[in-house]
Amino acid sequence: MELDSLYQEVILEHYKRPQNKGLLPNQTVQVHHVNTSCGDEITLNLKLTNGVISEISWDGVGCSISQASTSVVSELLKGKSSDAALSVIETFQAMLQSKGSDRGDESILEDGVAFAGVAKFPARVKCALLGWMATKDAISQSLALTGNNAKKEQK
Amino acid sequence: MELDSLYQEVILEHYKRPQNKGLLPNQTVQVHHVNTSCGDEITLNLKLTNGVISEISWDGVGCSISQASTSVVSELLKGKSSDAALSVIETFQAMLQSKGSDRGDESILEDGVAFAGVAKFPARVKCALLGWMATKDAISQSLALTGNNAKKEQK
Amino acid sequence: MNYFDVSAVQADFPILGRQIRGNNRLVYLDSGATSQKPNSVLDAERDFYTQHNAAAHRGAHQLAEEATELFESARERVAAFIGSKVDEVVFTKSATESINLVAYSFGNAEQGSRFHIEAGDRIVVSEMEHHANLIPWQELARRTGAELVWLSVSDDGRLDLTNAESIINSKTKVVALTHQSNVLGTINPVNEISKFARRVGAFFVLDACQSVPHYAVNVKELDVDFIAFSGHKMLGPTGVGVLWGRQELLDEMPPFLTGGSMIETVTMQSATYLPAPKRFEAGVPNMAQAVGLGAAIDYLNRIGLEKIHQHEVQLTKACLERLSQIPQLKIVGPSDMELRGGVVSFTLDGVHPHDLGQALDQYGIAVRTGHHCAWPLMKRFKVVATTRASFYLYNDLADVDALVSGVERARDYFLGR
Amino acid sequence: MNYFDVSAVQADFPILGRQIRGNNRLVYLDSGATSQKPNSVLDAERDFYTQHNAAAHRGAHQLAEEATELFESARERVAAFIGSKVDEVVFTKSATESINLVAYSFGNAEQGSRFHIEAGDRIVVSEMEHHANLIPWQELARRTGAELVWLSVSDDGRLDLTNAESIINSKTKVVALTHQSNVLGTINPVNEISKFARRVGAFFVLDACQSVPHYAVNVKELDVDFIAFSGHKMLGPTGVGVLWGRQELLDEMPPFLTGGSMIETVTMQSATYLPAPKRFEAGVPNMAQAVGLGAAIDYLNRIGLEKIHQHEVQLTKACLERLSQIPQLKIVGPSDMELRGGVVSFTLDGVHPHDLGQALDQYGIAVRTGHHCAWPLMKRFKVVATTRASFYLYNDLADVDALVSGVERARDYFLGR
Ligand SMILES: Cc1ncc(COP(=O)(O)O)c(C=O)c1O
Ligand SMILES: Cc1ncc(COP(=O)(O)O)c(C=O)c1O
């Protein structure tokens, strides 16, 4: 049954028990993303310490796909360098935009491969990407910020 | 041949030798009408003397239908009372808007019945009506004007 | 009870034979977004293209004459359908364009014109507007400095009119309101509200997108100045909408889109404009779509709007009754059939509308999920989104059954694990 | 010489089998006003309605997904056709809307925006513009207080560029020009003129209605900012047009029509807007028409625009040569094929274009007569109207023959008596 191929056990698990949900203070940046086609919203705090993501926390409302996917990305990228994280995000994005041809590399994406099936439902791709795009945005903003700070210190 | 049913001999005659073409001075009113779909233009002078159309003269550029039709109306209504003239115009208009079912009353419209065939060509109805509508407008304006004058005199 | 032969109607809509996600029968419950099209509409469009296609109002040759005649006869059909004069019907591309047309035309009116809007003036909308009848007014307010205020919505999904008199005050130039909410199904008491507008001399713009397709709307009986609706929601083609406006207003309003076929005379410096409806139909018009809309109206008339309405009431009533037996389900909107159309929105505790919609789709049931282009209304009801089923003449009680059991199955799928 | 199998092409257009005024073969020489449609375009539209119809970008069910995919794939086709990025293609209802969109969007830009236009600024057009590329700029000038000036046309129907540098001066914010005149057939040297615009930082809007359907137009090679064209003149359905704009401009410009599907977030007071192209596509879009336009582009690509162009050049050349042998006939426009498309306007001494057109129609020949929505150009050439024949891929030399002998017959009819 195709519904199961979309809603893998892993996804429903993360949906019921989302990781890192609840905003932590002391973030480097906070971002707020909205899925304009359905109104789902997410707020995400990210802390970058010496180029490494030391914390991701988030809150928001959304469907199982967007909630689970945000839970997965927040687990997966914690402890990774910003470069490594951005590359993982790229891998995930490529899988989602492959229309189903790319089943995802489990060694890189771990639980994230559960979302491979979403790629066949174009209207849901944005749900699966919501948390990931928020994270990507947060990393870029953090880098810009710490880069700026670095520059300021040089002056 | 249907072209002949549109371009009756009478029409081509009036087109080649238009009556009352060339504007006369001393009009009661002057009107300027344009056929917006093709750009044809007509200027018409009308003189109302004691409620009777004593002169109609006109100038303009246009197709054979609009030129001939203006020539016909200027001949036909000269000497008629404004009421009689308006009623003739109404008869002509009804014929043109009948889509071909009304062949026109020759005792009223005289040469005007030659335009009965135009009613079958919706895009040309406006051409045939251009001079007639200008005359109608000129009569109304003249009446309003002389009515106003009459009122002014009463005061 | 059958008001007409529903299965004969279904046979006129080829798409209803489609199979969805495997071999599920299509249960199409998204007519509020766009309706399906009967063969007669598609045939009318094709006949236009294969027999009569030419630029209407722009040529004297036979095809151009025929195209003009067909286009104008579509206008006559629309006029008869809403009880208006022929020249009061303006063809647009959509209800969205129709409403923007009014907003921009007012914005174009010079000082001294009765359509002119400026700082200090007020524009009144409601909290249940579709974005199409909200944002054009926000933008007009922004451009002119006018103030935008609104009627709010009560918990049972009705307009709150208790302070209508102070909201629609003497500064009010425009009241823009939906006839029927595309989310709640609520039908607004138009003539009651327009009294407030009349009292202060405000223009009344009615968004009739969700009413005209479903029950008889007669502009002679409605005390409003403009109505807007879309062809694609009433069995017609995409790409055609209607603005109806009172003749004396349309003839006086400044144009919106400018270009060919709407002019009287043109110099390099300036132009004068034809009377309505041409004044508002610049360019080669959407002829085939207007003709298709004419055929759609013929189809609706053949069945009869009164019967269509009763049929939809019957389905909606059954749907409301059955859905409210699902304990986790909450109806968003009036729960009875009093002043209510065939649109049913709901939420299901613990299941996000997107997930519910996905599951229903898997069973062949097409519903709309999301904010339904009525974001402020979602906030009003403190939901992110709802699931919406909307009915039309080709739906039947089997569709209601499919929906209800689909919702139960989906609930068990997501909550049962 | 045959560049492609013209009779096979003709067989794809059912309307060409029509008989006119009795049993005359239809000789359709009015493609400049609107083109005829091949079966494949009508089939694509019908397939959309009978298999995939749903509101694109507004639902998650299978039909909505398919409708979205088809609509967006039409956009990809248009983009590939003009060599642009996908997101630079905005679907409108017509070229007229496309041009109005730019004019209104600029008019909506606040002070400080690079699109803002105000008193003291200048907008430059030409004397050969179609009303669609003239009146929107007159109106923008009127609303903002900007000055409207124009490039004039020389006796041989070319743009007079001798004083272009002083006309397109440093105050100039917009230059709006036609790629090819719909009356004269003149093709303007776009990149030469856009140099003047670039020098002063003005935006360049190109009306490509008469070029895109007939020869390859690649926005990468054109040094312009916007191009506008209509689907119905290029084998596509009525009710669909395109605006192409440089991405960085479209993304920064204020919206024009507002409503659903173009918003990011909405409160009762204000809204934020999606990036282009969605920002400019409010409402349920003209999906079937966009899909039909995609099929039209497939058809044109199958024949090849280069071949279509050469075919038209051949017909136009023959037409010009043969018509100029009629002593009473005057060509309005360039008499050679240098920078010239398949549109031939003329006058016949002593026979008004309306009468000539009527006679030709009687013989089955459809031409356009009148001012062709280019009234100022008529005045420039001191004519009330012209007769215009315009060619497309389904015309052949027999059509040229029919036209020429038709003109001779009509002349004898009116002047011979
Ligand atoms: C040069 C030119 N510009 C603009 C237009 C307007 O196109 P539409 O009427 O399809 O909007 C036309 C055709 O009528 C045209 O020939
Ligand atoms: C109440 C209401 N108003 C306006 C619209 C806008 O209609 P369209 O998108 O056809 O312009 C819709 C439908 O989307 C609607 O339901």
Structure summary:
Chain A has 155 residues and is α+β, with helices and mostly antiparallel strands. Chain A contains six helices and three strands, in the order ααβββαααα. The interface between A and C is medium-sized, with 20 and 19 residues.
Question: Please, could you describe this protein's structure?
Answer:
- With 155 residues, chain A is of the alpha+beta class.
- Chain A has one domain (3-144): Alpha-Beta Complex (Sufe protein. Chain: A).
- Chain A is 51% helix and 16% strand.
- Chain A has a 3-stranded antiparallel sheet with strand order 1-2-3, covered by helices on one side.
- The longest helix of chain A has 33 residues, at 122-154.
- The radius of gyration of chain A is 15 Å and the shape is globular.
- The mean pLDDT of chain A is 91.
- With 417 residues, chain C is of the alpha/beta class.
- Chain C folds into 2 domains: 6-30 and 304-414, Alpha-Beta Complex (Aspartate Aminotransferase, domain 1); 42-300, Type I PLP-dependent aspartate aminotransferase-like (Major domain) (Aspartate Aminotransferase, domain 2, 3-Layer(aba) Sandwich).
- Chain C is built from 13 helices and 17 strands.
- A 7-stranded mixed sheet of chain C has the order 4-10-9-8-7-5-6, with helices on both faces. A 4-stranded antiparallel sheet of chain C has the order 13-14-17-16, with helices on one face.
- In chain C, helix 7 links the parallel strand 7 and strand 8 (203-207).
- In chain C, helix 3 (62-82) crosses helix 9 (287-303) and helix 4 packs parallel to helix 5 (135-144).
- The radius of gyration of chain C is 22 Å and the shape is globular.
- The mean pLDDT of chain C is 97.
- The interface between A and C is medium-sized, with 20 and 19 residues.
- Bound molecules: pyridoxal-5'-phosphate (PLP) (2 copies).
- One pyridoxal-5'-phosphate sits between chains D (94-96, 130, 132-133, 178, 182, 207, 209-210, 230, 241, 373) and C (260, 283-284).
